[in-house]
Every structure is written in C-alpha cells, then in structure tokens.
Automatic annotation (TrEMBL):
<dbReference type="Pfam" id="PF00173">
    <property type="entry name" value="Cyt-b5"/>
</dbReference>
<feature type="transmembrane region" description="Helical">
    <location>
        <begin position="309"/>
        <end position="332"/>
    </location>
</feature>
<dbReference type="InterPro" id="IPR012171">
    <property type="entry name" value="Fatty_acid_desaturase"/>
</dbReference>
<feature type="transmembrane region" description="Helical">
    <location>
        <begin position="271"/>
        <end position="289"/>
    </location>
</feature>
<dbReference type="GO" id="GO:0062076">
    <property type="term" value="F:acyl-CoA (8-3)-desaturase activity"/>
</dbReference>
<dbReference type="GO" id="GO:0006636">
    <property type="term" value="P:unsaturated fatty acid biosynthetic process"/>
</dbReference>
<feature type="domain" description="Cytochrome b5 heme-binding">
    <location>
        <begin position="24"/>
        <end position="101"/>
    </location>
</feature>
<keyword id="KW-0560">Oxidoreductase</keyword>
<protein>
    <recommendedName>
        <fullName>acyl-CoA (8-3)-desaturase</fullName>
        <ecNumber>1.14.19.44</ecNumber>
    </recommendedName>
</protein>
<keyword id="KW-0444">Lipid biosynthesis</keyword>
<comment type="pathway">
    <text>Lipid metabolism; polyunsaturated fatty acid biosynthesis.</text>
</comment>
<dbReference type="InterPro" id="IPR005804">
    <property type="entry name" value="FA_desaturase_dom"/>
</dbReference>
<keyword id="KW-0276">Fatty acid metabolism</keyword>
<keyword id="KW-0812">Transmembrane</keyword>
<dbReference type="Pfam" id="PF00487">
    <property type="entry name" value="FA_desaturase"/>
</dbReference>
<keyword id="KW-0472">Membrane</keyword>
<dbReference type="InterPro" id="IPR036400">
    <property type="entry name" value="Cyt_B5-like_heme/steroid_sf"/>
</dbReference>
Amino acid sequence: NCALRLSSVWSLVNTQVSKSAADPNLWWKQEVQSHCSRSDQWLVIDRKVYNITQWAKRHPGGIRVISHYAGEDATEAFTAFHPDLKWVQKFLKPLLIGELAATEPSQDRNKSATIIQDFHTLRAKVESEGLFRARPSFFCFHLGHILLLEALAWLIIWVWGTSWTLTLLSAFLLATSQLQAGWLQHDFGHLSVFKKSSWNHVLHKFTIGHLKGASANWWNHRHYQHHAKPNVFSKDPDVNMLHLFVIGKTQPVEYGIKKIKYMPYHHQHQYFFLVGPPLLIPIYFHIQIMRSMISRHDWVDLACSLSHYLRYLCCSVPLYGLLGSMLLISFVRILESHCFVWVTQMNHLPMNIDHEKHQDWLSMQLHATCNVKQSPFNDWFSGHLNFQIEHHLFPTMPRHNYHLVAPQVRALCDKHGIPYQVKTMWQGFADVFRSLKNSGDLWLDAYLHK
C-alpha cells in the first residue's frame, strides 16, 4: 500500500511537471509565493499572474503598498483601491506572464473561498445600488464650512482684538477647520468624490497642501499601506510606534522575552497623554512630511505646503508678530493632533494587532477595525470614520453612504461568525487607554518572568 501511494504521488508530480513544461504560461501557487523578495515580485489578480518587480517602483500609490502583496493573491485589494478597473487594466497588460493552473484554487493560504465569494456578491450589489456615486453637494457644503470656520477665526481677532479669550476661541476654530480639512483631503485621497481620478488628485493636492500644509504623495504612500494591511506589523506604518509603545498582545511579549526596554512600557498608558496626542501632528508628521517632500523631490507638494504657511503668516504676523504667530500655529496643531489621534486610534488600537496572517479581505479588515455609534455629532466630528469598518471594506465609497451599507455588512459578518464591533465614542476613547495598559502589563510580565 505504501509503495502504491508513493507511486501515485510520483505520478501526480510528473503530471504537474509535464503540464508546466507543456504550457509555460501556467503557474502553481507555490511558485508565485516564492517571488516575494524586494528584487523579485509576482502577484495574482483574477487568477492572472503578473511580474511587478519593475512596475512597483512606478506605482502611483508607492512601492511599499503593492510590495506588501508580493507572492499573494491581490484581487480583493486591487478591486477595493481602484474605482475604474478597466482603466487600470491597461497598466497590467505589459506585466502579464501567465495565469494560475486550472487545478489551483482561486483563494490562497488561509483565505475562505465562501467568504470571498459572499463579499464579492455584496460588493456587486452595493455597486448596483449606486452607493459608490458621490453627492457633489455634500462635499461642496463640507468645503464651504471649512472655509467659513477659518474665515470666522481670523475675523474675530481682526475685528475684536487679540485678547487671550478671543485668541483661544480663534485657535479652537482654526483647529476645527484643520481637523475637518483633514477628513476632506482623506475623501479626495481615496478617490471617493469624482469619477475621474485626476480630479480627485488635483483637489487632494489643494486640500492637503494649501489648506493643511501637508503632502499628498506622503499621505498616499503612507495611508494606502495602512488600508492594504491594517494592524499588521512591518506593513502598516500606523502600528510602527518607534519603540515608544508596545501594542497588541504579540509585540509586548516578544519585547519582554528579548528584554527590550526602550521605555517603561508598563507606564505607557500614562505617558501616552504626553507624547501621543499632543506631538503626533506638530512634531512627528511635520518632520516626516518635510523630509518626504525634499527627499522625493515633490516640488509641487512642497509649493502647495509653503502656500499654506505663507497664507497663515500673512494673516497672523500683523496681529501677533512672527514669534506669536509660530506659537499660535503650534497650539492649533496640538489641538488638532489631540482630536486626530483619539478619533483614529479608537477604531484600531484596541483591535487585533499582529504579524501577517494572510486573511481574506473581509476577515482582515474586521479584525483590525471597529465602529463607533452613529450620531450627527459623531459623523461630523470623525469625518464619518465612526464607520471605520465600512470605510476599510470600501475605501472608494463616498462617506455619506457608509450608514446605508452598514446593515448589509453586519449581516454578512453575522453569517460567517465574524465579530462586528460597535461602541460609543467614550468607550472607544477608554479602550485606547485600556489597551495600552493591557499591553504594558503583558510586556512587564514577559520581561520579569520569561
């Protein structure tokens, strides 16, 4: 019997080899998975195999986001990120080197074929319902209220003076305007406003550059990695804590076992308030943005960014002088940074954070995200990112439609036993603190006892 089984295995191997030799355009999953190094990258989209080694360097979203799928099936990510699939296909044709062998399954690794098919069906249904079509009036109104907030902030101190009370009021209005401009640039950056990607790109550069003083290319290269592999170490830049914090359940134990102690991590839930919310935008992001624009020679982004600061100085220097203007904008950035950090982290930091697990799109996004209950204030304050689940599943969907697709997503999750978490905003804030404390305790236990 053993000899018979060995003979059968050898026969199957010979059959596969002969098929591969007979048709060099057919590939096995194992072969594709072996091409995942920096200098040799293949991926699969709709069963077709592409060699992206050279193209990755020219990828508009950056080399890293596409490289994160090297050796994998990238069909779901490709569909999620590109609103016009037919237009993008022309860039893929020169990269095509074959397709998967007929005997190979469409899904790979730990991905569920049933979940993938059901999510594909849901996406087709959502598209047929027109939920990927934006309402121009919504985004025009949003832009208008951003400009109105900023104009009101300057008008108050120009007309009634620069007392401490009026200056604080003006700073809060400017910070609110900056926060809301951040959500609007996020809409353009995800190509969710206009049908033509080029229009989104132009408005994205204007909003993030002139209105906020940041860089569109920096944002694209960073943020799309987060969406491609959320909460995955070494692939999602948002979980790269620069050794300031240990997060999740895996990293603290790894650091503790290796006796890594860059910071007193068992106190990280306390010093988070000093180095997290107040410093992310005014220090860390600002340094990253400037270094990115200069090193990549993004002169258009740099010009847009400088136009923002020039406009700000023209409004503030006659009132506060140069030093006072710098102090005011620093305070505005700190206020904005607090809001930004709490809004973005309440959906992700308390969720599963781990190394690559090669999950299907639905499972991966649901394990890394959660929602915050809907209300007019929550929708406005968070830029509709209280629907973080729907945003991650459908990043090109206009945000005003998230609440319409949410019940369908929840039903799909219930069908497959995937947790769909919804909490209040205050619970979300508390979970950030609690998750940091729990991770710190895990690190201390591993550091002392393992």
